[in-house]
Write a structure and sequence with these properties.
- The protein has helices at 10-21, 33-40, 51-61, 70-73, 97-109, 126-140, 161-166, 178-188, 203-234, 238-246, 267-280, 286-298, 301-310, 337-347, 360-367, 401-407, 422-427; strands at 2-6, 25-29, 64-67, 79-82, 114-118, 147-151, 171-174, 198-201, 318-322, 351-355, 372-373, 386-389, 412-415, 431-433.
- It is an alpha/beta fold.
- Strand 9, helix 14 and strand 10 form a beta-alpha-beta unit.
- It is elongated and about 75 Å long.
- 45% of the residues are buried.
Length: 442
Amino acid sequence: MKIAVVGTGYVGLVSGTCFAETGITVTCVDIDKKKIENLKKGIIPIYEPGLENMVRRNVESGRLSFSTSLEESLVDCETIFIAVGTPPDEDGSADLQYVLAVADEIGSYMQDYLVIATKSTVPIKTAEKVREKISSALKLRSSKLEFDVASNPEFLKEGAAINDFLKPDRIVIGTDSKRAEKIMKRLYKPFTLNGHPIIFMDITSAEMTKYAANSMLATKISFMNDIANLCEVVGADVNMVRKGIGSDTRIGHKFIYPGAGYGGSCFPKDVKALIRTGDEYQRSLEILKAVELVNEKQKVVIPSKLREYYGSSLKGKKIGLWGLSFKPNTDDMREAPSIRIIEELTREGVQIRAYDPVALEEAKRILGDKIEYCTDKYEVLVDTDGLIVVTEWPEFRVLNYGVLEKLMREKVIFDGRNIYDPEELKEHGFTYYSIGRKAVKP
């Protein structure tokens, strides 16, 4: 079986590589010549644990290849996945120009029946636009070739994407064709041998499922952050509250950890897009608008804690910062809370020295010379007035108090992920601010 995946970003590269891992012949296509040449050399454009070795293994086996030519990649292809970017426009709606450009090219070059599956996160009714684009291109060729369009949203967590793809909770496929359903079922059979379900539904429902899933998870995060902020005021401990409500099986423990706000390529963009869709259909999604508002406010909670400790003027303060990526095990900084925190603090004259295990180069691209970059977590702390923890990388979890005491001018930590024990920090003479818990002082 031969397939093509258009787009070698996060979704496209992970999907194509995992399909190849099951024995399928896969061509990953991208118009970025430099990226394709790098991939052919084994240079991976993103950081995802295990991906680099899997790409190399499947390239060496001949199952995975890379190309800039969609026309050549369509030869003998049964299914093509569209996995190009859908960046948000200024109004929050998803930009479909790349998706529709691929659809037009498919219609221009296809030579046999194809299933065209959208794997990019796309607004509801996008499949209809893709179908129209392909039909128009075929009409210009006076061609009567048959094709089917399907929606196959991804549910990958950055940092655990390979495991999520190979061992999915569920596989959602939207199609109105039995022929397409049969092909997609065969394609995904290796991933269902352990009982993971394929859920077939209509295309519009599949498109909605992706947005609804991410928006629900974002809602849980913003809800918990709202509760955390109230806990601080009334004197409750949000960690205790989290354990209390998480034991209810209807709620569960996942995605109810308070923090400095959510980021990444999915939640912010998808919440905005679904809000926009609701507005287009005159169905205002008030809960999601509140979710977005809470998240934006949460990203400035850490700067407010610095003002509480140091006073209204932060000018001249030197602060160390651990963690730049929006979550551990990725170098992705899209909508990362660290960006907003850095912007707020540097605007007030704070000098920031930062460290991240994998996101330093991405940070330099985004932030430029706004901050100083360090290659060691303790190098960050030399002569600092405090430490901010933004991303809960495993290497940050255990503190060497002796080293901290020698390096830092002031013993204060602002923890945006609640990874430390307040009483332990107090015993070592540290002032400790976290989310949803009262500050502790020695």
